[in-house]
């Protein structure tokens, strides 16, 4: 762990120490870029997110089907956000843009065997890597509840993360993918960071655990900083360590209740001091999901506390875009285990857009969505407010308020 910085005698000394800390961490981290994704309306995004967990909300599906023929999509900037970083595979390294996803466990990228279904994505060619090992034609397939899927074969090769290399890592190489994946022009593949029981490629341990066992990183942890749109949206993923420059106060740790996803107990959602969650429910902390997804009653209570929030069957909840720039300090409180994690209501505005380019009333999508679901999903809307640490060794998630 990076040492806590104590009181220093001068500003010059402090600056020198901070520079040393950054230099110490630089070989372990991967910068995350802030990307504008497909402009899905909120219900469509919810359907996509739930499909990842095999959950089907028939009421939501019927709403989408009935409205789709008359729908006019909002044109707005940065509605759907994904944080993409660069990795490399093979010797010499072949580069790929991936989504670092704590909601899945496989590392996969398109292969040279993938034809037009992989669109313009970069493709890995094992014949051009001196460290490539074929797995004898072993195949794998990942399918979501909405019909999207990828399939291919497995192999082993060196995976390069910053200046750290994990040799002979098991990876999935895609030979075919459905349009839902192919249409993302910024993203080549997925870098899964959940537990092995969720994997389809046959990994026995997370790459984070393997890197720690090999002595490449000091701890079996991975840490995320996801920047706000107002700050340029840049982020950072750090393997094996914690970057205290990105948060304030102390990390609060919540135990994982099922070592598959990063699943914790959500014990309450407090709005105006009142708990609106009927009973404790599982919550999955997921860097690969844009939204916070909760039951309808919880979503309704949250949005009633936001001035000017409006619900539409097609678009879901929308919030005045101007609210994101307000001086409001109103918040809701999400309780995970016995810990409190407040969120400013103004941070639930998914993105800012100009009135001239979007809805005439200046409405933006909300970062909180509702669904008939047995679990909650805490995606990037939540994680932009909290630095998050995923501790494989102790099966826990650490959260601390992001530094303003």
UniProtKB/TrEMBL annotation:
Name this protein carries in UniProt: rhizopuspepsin
Positions of the catalytic residues: 101, 286
Catalyses which reaction(s): Hydrolysis of proteins with broad specificity similar to that of pepsin A, preferring hydrophobic residues at P1 and P1'. Clots milk and activates trypsinogen. Does not cleave 4-Gln-|-His-5, but does cleave 10-His-|-Leu-11 and 12-Val-|-Glu-13 in B chain of insulin
Disulphide bond pairs: 114-118
EC assignment: 3.4.23.21
Gene responsible for this protein: PARPA_09809.1 scaffold 39042
Family as reported in the entry's similarity comment: Belongs to the peptidase A1 family.
Occurrences of domain Peptidase A1 (ranges): 83-400
Stretches assigned to coiled coil: none
Keyword Metal-binding: no
Alphabetically ordered keywords of this record: Aspartyl protease, Disulfide bond, Hydrolase, Protease, Signal
Signal sequence annotation: 1-23
Classification via PROSITE patterns: ASP_PROTEASE, PEPTIDASE_A1
The keyword Iron-sulfur appears for this protein: no
Transmembrane segments: none
Molecular function via GO: aspartic-type endopeptidase activity
Annotated source species: Parasitella parasitica
InterPro entries on file: Aspartic_peptidase_A1, Aspartic_peptidase_AS, Pepsin-like_dom, PEPTIDASE_A1, Peptidase_aspartic_dom_sf
């Amino acid at each position: 762990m990076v040492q806590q910085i104590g009181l220093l005698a001068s500003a010059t000394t402090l600056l020198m120490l901070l520079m040393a800390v950054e230099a110490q961490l630089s070989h372990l981290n991967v910068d995350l870029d802030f990307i504008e994704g497909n402009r899905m309306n909120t219900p469509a995004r919810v359907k996509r997110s739930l499909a990842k967990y095999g959950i089907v909300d028939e009421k939501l599906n019927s709403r989408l089907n009935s409205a789709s023929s008359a729908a006019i999509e909002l044109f707005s900037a940065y509605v759907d956000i994904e944080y993409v970083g660069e990795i490399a595979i093979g010797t010499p390294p072949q580069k790929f843009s991936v989504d670092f996803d704590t909601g899945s466990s496989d590392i996969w990228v398109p292969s040279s065997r993938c034809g037009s279904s992989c669109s313009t994505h970069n493709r890995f060619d094992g014949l051009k890597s001196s460290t490539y090992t074929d797995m004898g034609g072993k195949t794998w397939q990942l399918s979501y509840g909405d019909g999207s899927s990828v399939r291919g074969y497995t192999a082993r090769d060196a995976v390069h993360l910053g200046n750290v290399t994990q040799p002979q890592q098991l990876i999935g190489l895609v030979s075919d993918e459905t349009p839902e994946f192919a249409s993302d022009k910024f993203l080549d593949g997925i870098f899964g960071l959940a537990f092995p029981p969720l994997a389809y490629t046959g990994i026995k341990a997370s790459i984070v655990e393997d890197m720690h066992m090999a002595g490449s990183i000091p701890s079996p942890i991975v840490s995320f900083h996801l920047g706000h749109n107002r700050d340029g949206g840049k982020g950072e993923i750090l393997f094996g360590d914690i970057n205290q420059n990105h948060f304030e106060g102390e990390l609060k740790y919540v135990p994982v209740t099922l070592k598959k996803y990063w699943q914790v107990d959500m014990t309450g959602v407090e709005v105006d001091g009142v708990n609106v969650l009927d009973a404790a429910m599982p919550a999955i902390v997921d860097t690969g999901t844009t939204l916070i997804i909760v039951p309808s009653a919880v979503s309704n209570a949250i949005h009633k506390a936001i001035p000017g929030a409006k619900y539409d069957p097609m678009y879901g909840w929308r919030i005045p875009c101007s609210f994101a720039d307000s001086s409001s300090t109103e918040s809701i409180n999400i309780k995970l285990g016995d810990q409190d994690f407040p969120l400013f209501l103004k941070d639930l505005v998914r993105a800012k857009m100009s009135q001239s380019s979007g809805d005439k009333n200046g409405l933006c999508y909300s970062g909180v969505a509702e669904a008939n679901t047995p679990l909650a999903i805490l995606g990037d809307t939540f994680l932009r407010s909290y630095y998050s640490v995923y501790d494989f060794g102790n099966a826990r998630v650490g959260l601390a308020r992001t530094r303003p």
